[in-house]
Design a protein that fits this description.
With 324 residues, the chain is an alpha/beta fold. It contains 10 helices and 15 strands. It folds into 2 domains: 176 residues, Alpha-Beta Complex (Quinone Oxidoreductase, Chain A, domain 1); 124 residues, NAD(P)-binding Rossmann-like Domain (Rossmann fold, 3-Layer(aba) Sandwich). The longest helix has 21 residues. This is Quinone oxidoreductase.
Length: 324
Amino acid sequence: MSKAIRIFENGGPEVMQWVDVEVGEPGPGEIRIRQEAVGLNYIDVYFRTGLYKQPLPGGIGMEGAGVVEAVGPGVTHLSVGDRVAYAGRPTGAYAQVRVMPADIVVRLPDDISFEQAAAMMLQGMTVQYLVRDTYRVQPGDTVLLHAAAGGIGLIASQWLKALGATVIGTVGNDDKAALARAHGCDHTIVYTRESFLDRVKEITGGKGVAVVYDSIGKDTFNDSLDCLAPRGTMVSFGNASGPVPPVDISVLGAKGSLKLTRPTIMTYVTQRDLLEPMAAELFDIVRSGKVKIEVRQRYPLSEVAQAHRELEARKTTGSTVLIP
């Protein structure tokens, strides 16, 4: 018998229950993983609350790392004993052991720890597609990055600097501002006491930025559009403050022929020809030292409710892992 977190209804952190589960043998195209570390991500809150729908009762969590215990028929790219990591659906990462599709799982280099992997797969591959595909950042670009002291934010700040960008990051307080600057932000804006729109215009001399990376959603969307230079790109990839209301696309023309996109990591990790080079580039930049993955909070998996409370209260910074 193994242990896992299950949710039987949507709601607050208290709906997550630490229960006994039977873990069987992997079927065709599946593997069984003994997990050494699990990632905590804001998307987990969306599934818990019901903003993102899934059948209930169900699992939760989308990122983990561990060792392959068993391999089902038809799996050729993984073997028993392999160190592996993954990010993506189906949910169910909050578990000691799980059976899951093998096609979203990649081998983990020996010099990257399980905790590092669990802290970076979803966030790091998100940053990879954001800065290398959704909008391909060029040397000299000026970028606005919301939530710059969060898990994605700290990875993105470092990666953007490695690409030669000027990074403007929004944060909630002075401590987070210092953290963001230590990870590559050239300018930090404490949004709780100053207008990020006014500050971006000031920093850029009124020109605006080439791209905005916005995981906040409703509260920042309109002002983010106004931070863009003509022909700039608005990348909305999260809803921490709530979903963005319907958009009149004529606004994009009126504000300077802007581009608007709403990418998701699910598009990438479900295609093996995209997943493998994404993961490889992430592993390479981490191993080079240009992007450092720092686990800033650890919780026992059984105490994940407390981790969710602190995440939603904006008390966490950088990456958080859960230990099964």
